Amino acid sequence: MIAFGQFLEILIGGLLSGVLYSLVALGFVLIFKASGVFNFAQGAMVLLAGLALVRTLDFLVARGLPFWAAVILGVVFAAAVMAIAAFVIERYVLGPLVNQDGLTLFMSTIGITFVLEGASQMIFGADNYPLRLFPTDAWFLFENQFPGGILVSKLDVWGGLIAGVLVTALAIFFQRTKTGRALRAVADDHTAAQSVGIPISWIWFVVWLVAGLVALVAATVWGTKLGVQFSITFLALKALPVLIIGGFTSVPGAIIGGLIIGAGEKLAEVYLGPSIGGGIEYWFGFVLALAVLMVRPQGLFGERIIERI
Amino acid sequence: MLYREAGQFKTTYAQDMAMFPIRQDRIAFILLLALAFLVVPLLAKLQIWPFGGEYLLRAILIPFLILSLAAIGVNILVGYCGQISLGSGAFMAVGAYSAYKFGTGINIPLAWLGTAIVIPPLPVLPSILLGGLMAAFAGVLFGVPSLRIKGLYLAVATLAAQFFFDWVFLRVPWFTNYSSSGSVNAPALNFFGLTMNSPIERYFICLSFVTVFALLAKNLVRGNIGRQWMAIRDMDIAAELMGIRPLYAKLTAFAVSSFIVGVAGALWAFVYLGSWEPLAFSIDRSFQLLFMVIIGGLGSILGAFLGAAFILVLPILLDQVPHALGIPISVETVSLLVFIITGSLICYLLIVEPHGFARLWSTAKEKLRLWPYPY
To answer: How many contiguous H segments (helices) and E segments (strands) does chain A have?
Structure first.
């Protein structure tokens, strides 16, 4: 029974931390769906959003504002920063690169990553800033069934709830609103969408803005977990296997991919790790993703790839 | 005026197939080789500006040559065969660590057979080449998914190689000969009985490797196999219908590319670094190589050199400018500024010339042929 309790604890912890990866992966999916750009800068956007939020928060609290007001103002300010970033990226980088092939666009987002990383740290400072938005202690569940109970981090649960709300909101936005429908049209076929009068550069701005807001949400959760610091950009790399498992084009796929990677990683670390040297969390997700790709080249939920000559 | 091909007739097939069909190109190439092999070492020997104090040779020319070699390798895979790879840093690491193991001797006990695989320490040159060979094996292994997946999915899949090998060299102590700090020292650079230690000699080692491999690569991509790669790159389904085997073409591209990248990794470790840690071959290295290839020009051997020069020299220059102008900026700000400027330059270059420096070069040559007339 002890072993089962431990298994359950690892599984739940893994699933919840997987949802946190999904939060980052969602930003990738949104941009890829709408513009075919593989946005490597998502991690840097999380950093930018986090820094903007935490620095305003610290500044306002130090001026004597109540915490809730500071949070609201901080979020508004960070959202504004993301809007400016989205505008600049669309206007000066991706706009001129329309109709280039995917590799060039991908490289340009790596360039954007460098600029965002440099600029955000230069403007907002380059230390590790702690963020206290969500409780970070843990619950102990089922204490009478299992000795010691099952430890569940409250922050991870918050992360799961937020991810759920976010996915619902995005689904409504994509399915029910006019802009959402326009977004899907652009994703389907740029030229056709343009010819029925959808302003494509506006749509791309909206997509980058939404991805920026998703990055802001990810930053609130991850910033509470790790503190807002430079290494938060490596989240982008952790989110990549999530992305391939779920498929580049599927929002639910990003969530389910996150669950699979999170649980797989933690279980592998605990049950396989000791026998082959530990630290396998580092690459397990990628190898798992590779294995999935061998069976389904478009990921579990990706759209079928049809090739013509 | 000088750059004219008028009056140069090709009378045999051999002339038609020449690597440099225009006489001026041949002369320029020979002059360049002479400059690299004779003038630079001579200047360095005599300590004439800009070669006073070894800095240029040790900190710029040697890494430039090695990274150009690696960029040629990456270009074969990405530029000629169209398979995006983000794992080149890992293949450099495989080359470096395998060369290290071959250079220090291998002993794998096979207890259940009552015997052991024992390889005595090999000289440096065979170790480096064997390091390249091991990298080629690793490349083929991680190239197998390319038969199923394409484009950006493949790019992400090659990251698996990067993370896996990072972990292997960090966590498996056998590869570092159980060194407690995790960093290892290269064996003495002993080529054919000569110990090569001074920067000039190291420069010669790198230059010889780069020249040989660049010529090899240039000839490979001009030949049958290179044409197969390019056909796969341009449209793999059409190439398959024409009778090109994707399995053979893609895996040879992975093998050749990883071999060259592995040799470059071994050189980077042995000749440039001397002692190194797994961090020397992290994912940043992979991105750096990919940048070099894209900025230099996909599908161009010359582009690999131009890209390597640009990406390597840019941060060094940016670092020097505030010093030279006497502007007091903290080291941290400079490093952040380097980030911003590098990133924006990359975006800018991609916008104005998505085909890289190599395309600018060939446009310049076209213009030169007509100069001073407009057409």
So the answer is: 12, 2
The answer to whether residue B58 sits within a structural domain is: yes
Looking at chain A, the whole-number percentage of residues with pLDDT higher than 90 is 12
Q: Which of B170, B237, B350 sits opposite A111 (nearest CB)?
A: B350
Domain locations in chain A as residue ranges: 2-295
- State the CATH number of the domain containing residue B167: 1.10.3470
pTM above the 0.90 mark? no
CA dihedral A241, A244, A249, A253 (to 10 degrees): -70
Inter-chain contact B149–A293, Cβ cutoff 8 Å? yes
Min Cα–Cα distance to chain A from B200, Å:
35
* SS3 category, B241: helix
Domain-located, residue B4: no
Evaluate whether residue B214 is within a structural domain: yes
**What pLDDT, in 10s, does the model give residues A29-78?**
888 877 778 888 888 999 999 999 988 988 888 888 888 888 899 999 99
Residue B257 domain-assigned?
yes
Topology of the domain comprising A2-295: ABC transporter involved in vitamin B12 uptake, BtuC (1.10.3470)
Q: Is A306 on the interface with B (CB under 8 A)?
A: no
Q: Which domain does B243 fall in, by range?
A: 22-275
Cβ distance of B160 and A286 shorter than 8 Å: yes
Residues A138-166 pLDDT 10s: 777 666 666 666 777 788 888 888 888 88
Total number of domains in chain B = 1
Quick one: pLDDT at residue A1?
A: 45
Using CB atoms and an 8 Å cut-off, which of residues 269-288 of chain A contact chain B? 277-280, 282-283, 286-287
CB atoms within 10 A of CB B123: 14
ipTM over 0.95: no
Q: Which among B152, B339, B351 has CB closest to A106? A: B152
Q: Pick from B312, B271, B258, B301: which is nearest to B93 by CA?
A: B258
Which residues is A175 bridged to in the sheet? none
A273 DSSP 8-state letter:
H
Out of A111, A117, A293, closest to residue B346 by CB: A111
